[in-house]
Design a protein that fits this description.
By secondary structure, the protein is α+β, with helices and mostly antiparallel strands. The chain has one domain: Outer membrane efflux proteins (OEP) (Up-down Bundle), CATH 1.20.1600.10. It is 59% helix and 9% strand. The chain has helices spanning 39-52, 59-62, 73-78, 85-106, 150-216, 222-256, 282-292, 294-314, 356-422, 429-461; strands at residues 6-8, 14-16, 111-117, 136-146, 320-330, 341-348. The strands form two sheets. Strands 3-4-5-6 form a four-stranded antiparallel sheet, with no helix packed on it. A two-stranded antiparallel ribbon has the order 1-2. A hairpin with a 5-residue loop joins strand 1 (6-8) and strand 2. Helix 5 (150-216) runs antiparallel to helix 8 (294-314) and helix 8 packs antiparallel against helix 9.
Length: 473
């Protein structure tokens, strides 16, 4: 046993110290320099980078409320920013549709126009007034009374488009919420990966250090030392990658929360095992899709909008009945059209438009056929996705039993290894700690995969009771 590589906690449990040096261990080879990182040089580079001026957070991001430390999943979900680009775009599309609807409704509003004309004329010889000033002023009010279904069909089409955009906005929020959950779990798994790989490196270091002492006594050959050194360096590189994975996972979570400058330092894991809902049978879930899936609902709204657009195209060249009133004043007071006031009902009847009507109807019909094809394709994709998630959950539920069994075994095994170590007998305590960390990672990975799968399932069938983390009411 290498006593210099261990220390004791207050509860008398052994802990493997981490190596504090970065140079390579093992038999030194002549002529090969060992690289070191000097703290002073690193600090100098950091100061230079700071003086060069890293870009600060934008005013919009700076105004976001700081994330609490430590961060919990419930807090992260409550901190989802409405100004996140994914949600911002969906909201902008919905507002655009609302403005298009408002514009369509206002298209046939009452219009009042003023006509002011400064005119000079050369009157003919028979005119009773030989003056040259023929200026005039008039106020004309017009209002479409009916176009026999054209405007109402267009308004109905825009109303269904607004409804579809609103459903898309709600779907974008739900999908982004699922992304935040996944990013949060990625951070937790990255931390567990680091714990596992850190303990693996520490165990490899202890083995290498023990072999060095035996190598000096001639009990371990040089080739075995090189093999152990290579194993240690492999474990060290894996630990470094796990540490970088921690940074990346935190950056991804901060980005998902629209706070790229607030990567959380400490993230708390929910207690395991997670409270999972009962999994309905596949037939029940397939029946729920038709009425609960948001994508299918959106596609149906688009079909309805296309149908209304087709009706509008058919009614585009129907007669138009409008009312018109006018009051005016003229410099030359003669002529049949120069009355102080006028009111009229005007019926416009289109007689011939060539192929315009059939072309407009054909375009609208093609758009409707496209929307119907999109619905059929979406329904097929949703059914396929549902089956994949259902079978994935069933597989993960079996894997969950495996993970729990591994945890039970590793907890008992490490207790035995610690007992043997306390009695100064030969024990694989380092490897036992690595295996226990690996079992904890496997257990958490299984639980988190199940939680995400159930959240996806709840989204697919539109059943909030299948959510593992229901939103606050």
């Amino acid at each position: 046993m290498v006593r210099g590589s261990r220390c004791m906690r207050d509860d008398s449990k052994p802990v493997i110290n981490l190596p504090r040096r970065t140079e390579t261990f093992g038999p030194k080879r002549p002529g090969i320099a060992r690289p070191r990182w000097h703290a002073r040089a690193a600090m100098t580079l950091a100061i230079i980078a700071a003086l060069l001026g890293a870009p600060g957070p934008s005013p919009a991001l700076a105004s976001a409320e700081p994330l609490p430390q430590p961060l919990r999943l419930e807090t992260a979900l409550a901190a989802i920013e409405a100004e996140h680009p994914a949600l911002q775009r969906a909201r902008a599309l919905r507002r655009q549709a609302e403005q298009n609807l408002a514009a369509e409704k206002a298209a046939n509003d009452l219009t009042v126009d003023a006509h002011l004309e400064a005119r000079w004329i050369d009157p003919n010889d028979h005119a009773p007034d030989d003056s040259n000033d023929d200026s005039r002023a008039a106020v004309v009010a017009r209002k479409l009374l009916t176009d026999f279904g054209h405007s109402s069909s267009r308004i109905a089409a825009h109303e269904r488009t607004v409804a579809a955009r609103l459903a898309e906005e709600e779907l974008a929020y739900t999908e982004h919420r699922l992304t935040v959950i996944q990013r949060y779990f990625d951070v937790l798994l990255a931390d567990l990966s680091f714990v596992r790989d850190n303990e693996a490196m520490a165990s490899a270091f202890v083995t290498l250090n023990r072999a060095r002492n035996r190598n000096e006594l001639g009990q371990v050959s040089d080739i075995d030392m090189f093999e152990l050194e290579a194993s240690y360096q492999t474990a060290r590189a894996k630990r470094a990658r796990a540490q970088l994975g921690q940074r990346k996972a935190r950056a991804d979570l901060a980005e998902a929360l629209n706070r790229p400058d607030q990567a959380p330092a400490q993230v708390l894991a929910p207690p395991l095992p997670l409270p999972l809902p009962e999994l309905p049978d596949l037939g029940t879930l397939l029946e729920l899709i038709d009425s609960g899936n948001p994508e299918i609902a959106i596609r149906r709204m688009r079909i309805e909008a296309a149908q209304r657009s087709t009706e509008a195209a058919r009614a585009q060249y129907r007669p138009r009945l409008r009312a018109e009133a006018q009051i005016g004043a003229w410099q030359r007071e003669f002529g049949g059209d120069r009355n102080p006031a006028m009111a009229a009902l005007i019926l416009e009847i289109p007689l011939y438009q060539g192929g315009r009507r059939s072309a407009a109807v054909g375009q609208a019909t093609a758009q409707r056929h496209l929307a119907e094809a999109d619905l059929a394709h979406t329904m097929s994709e949703v059914r396929t996705a549902l089956r994949e998630i259902f079978f994935e959950i069933e597989s993960l539920l079996i894997q969950r039993d495996e993970a729990l069994a591994r945890m039970d075994f590793r907890e008992l095994y490490i207790d035995r290894a610690r007992a043997l170590y306390d009695r100064e007998e030969r024990a694989d305590l380092g490897d036992s700690m690595v295996q226990q960390s690996a079992a904890a990672h496997f257990h958490a990975e299984t639980e988190y995969a199940l939680a995400v799968a159930f959240e996806r399932l709840a989204l697919l069938v539109g059943d909030p009771t299948l959510r593992v983390f229901p939103p606050d009411p």
